[in-house]
Amino acid sequence: MWGRELSASTKFSPGSKGRLTKHDLDRFPDDTLFDRLARTVCEAGCLPRKELYEAWEMARRVRRLFRGGRVVDLGGGHGLLAQAMLLLDDSSPNALVIDKALPASSAKLHDVLVDAWPRLKGRIAFVAGSIDDVEFLETDIVVSSHACGALTDRVLDRAATARARVAVLPCCHDLDSGDDGGLSGWVDGAVAMDIVRALRLEQQGYRIWTQTIPEDITPKNRLLLGEPRAVQPIPRQSV
Ligand SMILES: C[S@@+](CC[C@H](N)C(=O)[O-])C[C@H]1O[C@@H](n2cnc3c(N)ncnc32)[C@H](O)[C@@H]1O
């Protein structure tokens, strides 16, 4: 299930911002978790198509590496990323979705997901607020899909301060104010900024993974994941 690639029947502009509706149900005929999730999203009729594919592709990559702990979805919008993570792997007891402007339709989407998967009931908290209002736990998995510009840096900093596992899919790189590490003479400025982010996380004592999700879903497709390296015990000095 986890390693499953998207079926041929779903090969229709996954990067479209058009909403998935009941008219799209036939595009997802299979009895796979992805197709069942997509059909449920179609029933809700409120989610842009690209958000389904982005959330799914990010969730499955995060879940290959990180299990257990609370899922904290920052700038989470409809919160599909957090909910897909719980559907892919029930090892996390609950999830928190924070967004300073939660879409009104996030409740509608959550309701149809709970109807389809009653085990989600009572496990997802939606909070309208800033990422700066959240207390992070060391055991959390902090995720953020397309936190615009410097918001991605704040997500990484806050997660690293708590020594939590983290995964971000950066977007809206501000080439004027962002840190490109002086690398943009060699590589694209946005790539340079994401390299600096990855190396900073590594220098903060994290093991990092750099991956991509398919470019036809979004050109902002670089996924950075990090997990704190275990602290090596200091050997006792013999007297
Ligand atoms: C580009 S959207 C991404 C939404 C969702 N993660 C997705 O991938 O579809 C960025 C989101 O971040 C939210 N946001 C911006 N600044 C924020 C802040 N300081 N605290 C919480 N959410 C914030 C916005 O309201 C918006 O919903």
Account of the protein in words:
The chain is an alpha/beta fold and 239 residues long. Helices cover 33% and strands 18% of the residues. It has six helices and seven strands. Strands 3-2-1-4-5-7-6 form a seven-stranded mixed beta sheet, sandwiched between helices. Helix 3 (80-88) links the parallel strand 1 and strand 2 (95-99). Helix 1 packs across helix 4 (105-116) and helix 2 packs across helix 3 (80-88). The longest helix has 17 residues, at 49-65. The mean pLDDT is 94. Bound molecules: S-adenosylmethionine. The site of S-adenosylmethionine has 16 residues, from helix 2, strand 2 and strand 4. S-adenosylmethionine binds at residues 51, 54, 75-77, 98-101, 130-131, 145-148, 151.
Features of the shown structure:
single chain, 239 residues, alpha/beta, seven-stranded mixed beta sheet, 6 helices, 7 strands, 18% strand, globular, binds S-adenosylmethionine
- Specify the overall morphology: globular
Q: Which hetero ligands occur in this complex?
A: S-adenosylmethionine
Order of helices and strands: HHEHEHEEHEHEE
Q: Please tell me the overall pLDDT.
A: 94
Low-confidence stretches: none
Could you describe the largest sheet, including whether it forms a barrel?
A: 7 strands, mixed
What is the number of strand segments? 7
**How much of the residues is beta strand, in percent?**
15-25%
Structural class: alpha/beta
* Number of separate helices: 6
Gyration radius over CA: 18 Å
Q: Roughly how many Å apart are the termini? A: 56 Å
Q: Specify the helix fraction band.
A: 25-40%
Strand order of the largest sheet: 3-2-1-4-5-7-6
